[in-house]
Amino acid sequence: MDSRVLVDDLSFVKMIDSKEIESKIAEMAVEINSVYFGEKIEIIIVLKGAFIFAADLIRHLNFEHNIHFIQFSSYQGTSSSGIITEKFPLELDVRDKKILIIEDIVDTGNTLNYFIDKLNTDNPRSVDIAALLFKTEAYTHTFPVRFSAFEIENKFVIGYGLDIDEKARNLKHIYQLEK
Ligand code: IMP
To answer: Could you tell me the pLDDT band of residue 90, with boundaries at 50, 70 and 90?
Structure first.
């Protein structure tokens, strides 16, 4: 029934089932918990797309942490406008802090590259990334994506927090644009 969805006349086909997402996130959390055991971490959630992923991931984490939010925008429809704007700035002094950025998807990597460069000017102790999805073929940067749940091909995806023009964030599964 839910193997295909239509949004604005575009057809999307189911790519990752919610059950698979759930178990992969639990696995990822085991790894993250082992890396940060006994540490205090500043978690920065990138709005809006990561809100569902972050809510699910964070409930598995067992180290001390604070939660912060930031928002950028560079996407319109199914492609990046190339211009990154900060819509919801970070109010955190990152000096000497260990940072974990939670992001929905790393595509070109431009958004995170911009943000990491900015964070690094204030000398955090470390910066790691936990991304739900990683489009490795589209990626054009070198910063490590330390934790990623799924590496996917270079096609536009929606659901589980990811949108197309603000639609489809509420879909339980992840869907890929059908050509
Ligand atoms: P990047 O700067 O190209 O890595 O793009 C990062 C941001 O673009 C993500 O945080 C998403 O908000 C958005 N984005 C990239 N690819 C997709 C996609 O396939 N579906 C929905 N949003 C996407």
So the answer is: confident
